[in-house]
Design brief:
With 460 residues, the protein is mainly β. It contains 4 helices and 30 strands. Strands 11, 12, 15, 16, 17, 18, 19, 20, 21, 22 and 23 form an 11-stranded mixed beta sheet that branches. Strands 1, 2, 3, 4, 5, 6, 9 and 10 form an 8-stranded mixed beta sheet that branches. A 4-stranded antiparallel beta sheet has the order 7-8-13-14, with no helix packed on it.
Length: 460
């Protein structure tokens, strides 16, 4: 045996084993340090559920935002983390935007619940030991609701992972806006407005609780006039089914109530305005529920007669992004005379109007467009027209929403490629690219047509 050769081979083998051990250690170190991901509340991580509840090497960081960009988030935000057995394993509070709570958790499946705007001096909030997903967040005696928001999300955390969860908060209350009752008799001593039934409380997991609630808004006389108005704008949880709005007038000799039963629910994230006029035949009331930066508009108009009977009509004004009367709501603008101007885009379209590598005069385009609009109008009996450049750009900004609504409604056409529009400044028909929002240089076979129409709704 060659002793020198044997020793040499042994040394080489030991060196190789040492290098493999070093490489393995480096791989593990880099693998753990880079194990970080962001989880939004629009996606749910998949994985096997773990029943482990003990503290571990995984970290969960939580941030909060409004469900839409124009929502101002309420503070404080209480964040509860529950394991797969509904045991609360973490509770932290955010008091400002920059706060990012961090939870040390074992690997496994977790449910995260957040409630915003519930202050400790107004609500009975559970401790971590008391909390269950179904725990009621009840109002303290004599307190009124604040601008409550909630969010929830489930996620699976792997061992050694750092996950950042962004919770999108949605508003869970409606707001009483302006209430004005005009021409009340001088004998009126007090006037109150009551809305019922509304939910009383909300649970930690976002479900509503308590079915016998009501909100009472006292009015005050405006100076020496016969107009009574509210001085507070309280929040309330939404109504159960169809709500009743009651006006209660007390004079020196009697108390009389005028009630109207709404034909639909009063939902969260709406502002309710009520206007009324007292006449010899009773009180005529008109109500407006509007969204501003909230959620759209509903309108309630009703008369209250001396004999206690009521007659009324209700109009629900569609919000931007809705499908209304088979069309997409591109915009909804309020005018000074309390009407809503609503721009609708047809979900149907006409293609194959133009050919590639062909020059068209404006008169030719006008004839093609008129025939296409007539075909579109005849198909559904609506009065469509060609959109202006501004209207087409507004629609293009909502391309994703338009196509999502089409998919939900089972409509196969896609809002894409190029569409004809009327350039009001130069008084010519052009084509606009959906991808860029710019005017197409020339025309091609991908140019299509969708119509628009404007409808008006009276909101008071």
């Amino acid at each position: 045996m060659n002793i020198k050769g044997y020793i040499y081979r042994k040394n080489i083998m030991r060196w190789q084993q040492s290098m493999l051990a070093v490489l393995a250690a480096l791989t593990m170190a880099f693998g753990v340090s880079s194990c970080e991901k962001a989880v939004s509340d629009y996606e749910e991580e998949s994985g096997q559920e773990s029943t482990s509840n003990t503290q571990g090497t995984s970290t969960l960081k939580v941030t909060a935002k409004g469900l839409s960009g124009d929502i101002v988030v309420s503070y404080p935000i209480s964040v509860y983390v529950f394991d797969s057995k509904d045991k609360c394993v973490g509770l932290q509070t955010l008091s400002k935007t920059s706060d990012v709570p961090s939870f040390s958790l074992a690997h496994g499946m977790y449910n995260v619940y957040a409630i915003a705007g519930a202050t400790a001096d107004r609500y009975n909030l559970p401790t971590a030991d008391e909390a269950k997903p179904s725990t009621v967040i009840s109002l303290m005696e004599g307190k009124e609701h604040s601008d409550l928001m909630t969010a929830s999300q489930s996620l699976n955390i792997s061992d050694g992972e750092t996950a950042t969860l962004s919770l999108s908060l949605s508003r869970r209350v409606m707001k009483i806006g302006k209430i004005e009752i005009y021409d009340l008799p001088s004998t009126a001593k007090s006037v109150n407005v009551e809305i019922m039934p509304v939910y009383e409380n909300i649970c930690l997991n976002g479900t509503l609780n308590g079915t016998g609630g009501s909100v009472v808004i006292p009015l005050q006389q405006s100076g020496t006039t016969n107009t009574w108005t509210n001085t507070t704008t309280p929040y309330s949880l939404e109504s159960l089914d169809n709500a009743t709005v009651k006006i209660i007038i007390t004079t020196s000799t009697q108390t009389k109530s005028y009630a109207y039963s709404c034909k639909s629910r009063l939902y969260a994230n709406y502002i309710l305005n009520i206007y009324g006029t007292y006449k010899s035949s009773g009180i005529t009331l008109s109500g407006k529920i509007n969204g501003t930066t909230w959620s759209g508009e509903n309108n309630v108009v009703f008369d209250l007669n001396p004999d206690g009977t009521t007659q009324g009509t209700e109009t629900q004004v569609p919000q931007v992004g809705d499908l209304y009367d088979g069309a997409f709501v591109v915009s909804c603008e309020m005018t000074d005379d309390n009407t809503a101007q609503i721009l609708l885009l047809s979900m149907s379209e006409i293609s194959g109007l133009l050919a590639d590598n062909t020059n068209y005069s404006n008169s030719q385009l006008q004839s093609i467009t008129e025939n296409a609009i007539a075909t579109l109008s005849q198909s559904d009996g609506k009065d469509w027209r060609l959109p202006t450049g501004v209207e087409m750009q507004a629609a293009i900004k909502m391309q994703a929403e338009i196509n999502a609504k089409a998919a939900d409604a089972g409509i196969s056409t896609s809002f894409s490629d190029y569409y004809l529009y009327y350039a009001t400044t130069i008084k010519e028909i052009r084509a606009m690219s959906v991808a860029t929002g710019n005017t197409l240089n020339g025309y091609n076979s991908k140019v299509k047509l969708r119509g628009v129409r404007t409808i008006t709704m009276n909101v008071r």
